[in-house]
TrEMBL record:
Organism, scientific name: Liparis tanakae
Residue ranges, annotated region (Disordered): 118-137
Protein family (similarity comment): Belongs to the glycosyltransferase 6 family.
Composition bias, Basic and acidic residues: 118-130
Protein name: Globoside alpha-1,3-N-acetylgalactosaminyltransferase 1
Keyword check for Metal-binding: yes
Binding of Mn(2+), residues: 180, 182
GO annotations of cellular component type: Golgi apparatus; membrane; vesicle
A GO molecular-function annotation: metal ion binding
Residues engaged in binding UDP-N-acetyl-alpha-D-galactosamine: 69-71, 74, 180-182
Gene3D superfamilies for the chain: Spore Coat Polysaccharide Biosynthesis Protein SpsA, Chain A
Binding positions for an alpha-L-fucosyl-(1->2)-beta-D-galactosyl derivative per the UniProt entry: 202, 272
GO biological process: carbohydrate metabolic process
């Protein structure tokens, strides 16, 4: 006599067929903090069971949208970004990637990895609701204007993300991640990263006191954070969450960035500064550890057991339209 709630909108529901390692509330990662002071999980390798989470979210029929911008010479990063996304990003789920570029004819054709197909074994043990294998990830290319300033290209992403999300059909189980293109996946990035509002701690600052975070420090900017404010330094290169939440974020950051421009001020790190201000007020419901955005030039640290996504080393002078 199973208890079948009318709706499981507000809690996770698992199949009783799935057996996994017994969880412990005594043992776990003790070298890192795995929960914020507002009780949001901080996702590190070893804090979650990927099979359990995948099975939970497969019952939910979720869709994952990703946005990536490749304007000007940054189109050169698309091939490896897309190829590695195929191998590691939400494998087994409905994934839709939107590429924004001013060089549509240079977007590489990327072959879909076999790992995308649901295996026969998975189909056998899955329930009826998922007897149909999820479709292969799809890719949509959108044309955007180029620019003479990289700062503008980077910041304008908020505006384009906002309008994309206004066009997408509303989906209560729809998630979106907004990612830098000059990066590659090296390991799993999957359902463990899902949350209403998701931020990634910047790999360059997660060991630093907040006084050293490169927040916008001029009170005239709408991205201003005063000394003593700010939780973590989050990166502009990866954030996400539910469609409605990310829409709110993009709309707010765009509005504040443009209002600043009217006042003749550009935040220290453009939309990243505004994102940090936003996340100070609107606490993320899930924080991803720097495993989710590393930098290739940075030696791996002991607490980082796996690098999932990492920025490639690039020659700024060569690829950016301005220095
Ligand atoms: C890892 C990380 O958190 N990176 C952030 C950081 O610098 P980054 O040095 O990582 O910035 P970046 O040069 O990668 O630019 C950000 C993104 O804008 C796009 N782009 C940029 C220039 C260009 O000519 N063409 C183009 O397509 C592209 O998707 C790129 O990945 O600070 C920026 C502030 O503005 C952004 O917040 C970046 O997300
Ligand atoms: Mn980047």
């Amino acid at each position: 006599n199973d208890v079948i709630p009318e709706s499981h909108k507000f809690h996770l529901m698992a199949s009783d067929q799935l057996l996994y390692e017994q969880p412990s509330i005594l043992r776990g990662r003790s070298d890192v903090v795995t929960v914020t002071p507002w009780l949001a999980p901080v996702v590190w390798e070893g804090t979650f069971d990927p099979r359990l989470l995948d099975s939970v979210y497969r019952l939910e029929n979720i869709t994952v949208t990703a946005t990536v911008f490749a304007v000007g010479k940054y189109v050169m990063f698309l091939k490896s970004f897309l190829e590695t996304a195929e191998r590691h990003f939400f494998v087994g789920f409905k994934v839709h990637i939107y590429v924004f570029t001013d060089r549509a004819d240079e977007v590489p054709r990327v072959r879909m990895a076999a790992g995308r197909q649901v295996t026969r074994e998975e189909r056998k043990r899955g329930d009826a609701r998922r007897s149909v294998p999820p479709p292969k990830p799809t890719l949509t290319v959108r044309s955007v204007a180029g620019s003479e300033r990289w700062q503008e290209i980077s910041a304008r992403r908020m505006e384009l993300i906002q309008s994309l999300l206004e066009e997408l059909p509303p989906a209560p189980r729809g998630y979106v991640f907004c990612l830098d293109v000059d990066s590659r996946f090296h390991g799993r990035w999957g359902s463990e990263s899902l949350g209403a509002l998701v931020a990634v701690t910047h790999p360059g600052y997660y060991r630093d006191p907040r006084s050293r975070f490169p927040y916008e420090r001029r009170p005239a900017s709408r991205a201003y954070l005063a000394p003593g404010q700010g939780d973590f330094y989050y990166c502009g290169g990866a954030f996400g969450g539910l469609l409605q939440e990310v829409h709110q974020l993009a709309k707010t950051c765009r509005h504040n960035f443009e209002a600043d421009t009217q006042d003749g001020i550009e935040a220290a790190w453009q939309e990243e500064s505004h994102l940090n201000r936003y996340m100070w007020i609107n606490k993320p419901t899930k924080v991803l550890s720097p495993e989710y955005l590393w930098q290739d030039f940075k030696p791996q640290t002991p607490e980082v057991h796996i690098i999932r996504f990492s920025g490639v080393v690039k020659n700024y002078a060569e690829i950016r339209p301005n220095a």
